[in-house]
Amino acid sequence: MARPNVFVFAVPSEFGDTGAVFERAGCTLAWGDEGWLYPGCIYEEDMAALAAGASAMTGTSVRNAPITRTVMEGAQRLRVIAKCTVGTDDVDVDAASDLGILVTHAPTLSNWGGVAEGAMAMMLAMLKKSREKDRLVKAGVWRHESMTGTYLGRRSEDGYPGITIGIVGLGRIGGRMAELLGPWHVRLLACDPYVEDGKFVRCGVEKTDMATLLAESDVVTLHSTLTRETRGFFGAAQFEAMKPMALFMNTARGGLVDQDALADALAAGKIAGAAIDAFVDEPLAEDSRLRGFGDRVLLSAHNISHNRGSGLGPGIAWAAECVLDALRGRIPGHVFNPDCIPKWRERFADNALID
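The structure corresponding to this sequence follows.
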């Protein structure tokens, strides 16, 4: 029996000896091109050529070179695309389901929990003006009025109401944000039409619509999933509806936001500032307008979940196990497109390629 091929389309930096794990299981490996991670690459034919002989694909995010229907249609043996990350927006999941290919992902706490912690850190740095204070003190300036930060929580002793934080998307990360913010005694609003009412109660947030959230929030933090429905949904109208002194945060997916509209809103003073970890095209272009707003914008290189004791390591292990299960003819865990399972069973169940 020929050794099954595993195509690692985007190699995670923490991949380590995972390749050796596949080889010990009796697999051969093919590797994607690092250039696929950069905007403007021409990739589809090369990716399709490597996928053609693959029984499984795995890797981290490759948004500039998504795994298209064309790539999958040419891969007649392909059983599973196992992402090492939570997101699957770089895979045409509908096409995979049509073709009987399972897509798995890795919603590990180390990943999404790290995003929530990072978002908290970015928000506090902006509200407390930590960067400005550090820079001015190092420059010899002591206690300038520009160093004044924002007090977050309400105070009963003097009637200070505290600020309002609006969470758009109350999934894993949005829910953890609410959990982390609970002890700060801020007012929490949340909007998510796909979450049951009980979760709003458990998270201690007020369920509201988007219009109310935008109008009343001092911080709007975006934690939605990128789908056809949500791509570019946060644009000029949403920024126009926010408070002029509000802070906008996106630590989810760059494709959720119209970046030109964000830059326009900042330039026109429609919002006070932004903290961004995810961009439409990555790396962020050197001439991006978002680089030009000084301390009003805090930028991060879509690595907010990369922390000591965290990161993609657990997700890589999950993805590897999903690949091995699929190659053994078993339904893997963490299937993102469960509607595909009956078709997959017809094609591959109990058809083991490895022991």
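The chain has a mean pLDDT of 94.
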